[in-house]
Amino acid sequence: MEKRLKDKVALVTGGARGIGKAISELFAAHGAIVVILDVLEEGKVIAEDIRSHGGRAEYYLLSVTDKNAVNQLCERVFAAYGRIDILINNAGITRDRTLEKMTQEEWEMVMDVNLKGVFNCTQAVVPYMKENKWGRIVSAASNVGLRGNFGQTNYAATKAGIIAMSKTWTLELGKYGITANAVAPGLTMTEMVEKIPEKQLDAIIESIPLKTVAQPMDIAYGYLYLASDEARYVSGICLTIDGGISR
């Protein structure tokens, strides 16, 4: 198999489960040195499993909301490898509730992880990418950020914000050989979706033109493209992978 990310150093936030886990595994299979950042200790098992299959991966217990910790981690990775090539801003949370019932705490928690966390990590890696005149920033949006969703005022706002930030970074960082893009997944079979009652899930699937739910690896391949040399002239886009529901 051609190694599309051979020897690239890739930071993957929220890399312990779901789509983040699939991204970590796929990038490692394509030759990347994967640094998994997560508040979940399952990330350690994912890194060990990648290494047991001949890949290169390490795990750090870290919250993307902790700016100092993020900065220190990036310094450590750069000192070890002399480069940070790819940032995958995948960490995110939901705290769903309708507008009138949403608490200030639920609003702020989602803002902190989904927006401030993306800002923290991106601001931390950019100096290292500029030094090597090459970088790929790919951030997790959602089709909810394009079309809204009942009970997700906070989540939809953050995902729309990520798309806007990516477009802004395209303008600011392009001259340094750095691209910035977003990926907007639709319904994907993660732990969160598995908890949806069967009747409700069937109704959602019926609304999807492809009549099926994405698997995490379906989304991970979009990230692989945007992180690779093949996408050198792709910046400022939001790649929608949702079975056609946002057509």
UniProtKB/TrEMBL annotation:
Keyword terms: Oxidoreductase
Keyword Transferase: no
EC number: 1.1.1.47
Ketoreductase domain span: 8-186
Superkingdom of origin organism: Bacteria
SMART domains: PKS_KR
InterPro entries the record matches: KR_dom, NAD(P)-bd_dom_sf, SDR, SDR_fam
Molecular function per GO: glucose 1-dehydrogenase [NAD(P)+] activity
Family matches, as PANTHER family: 3-OXOACYL-(ACYL-CARRIER-PROTEIN) REDUCTASE, 3-OXOACYL-[ACYL-CARRIER-PROTEIN] REDUCTASE FABG
Family classification: Belongs to the short-chain dehydrogenases/reductases (SDR) family.
Database matches in NCBIfam families: PRK07231.1 (NF005559), PRK12826.1-2 (NF009466)
Protein name as catalogued: Glucose 1-dehydrogenase
Organism in which the protein naturally occurs: Flagellimonas oceani
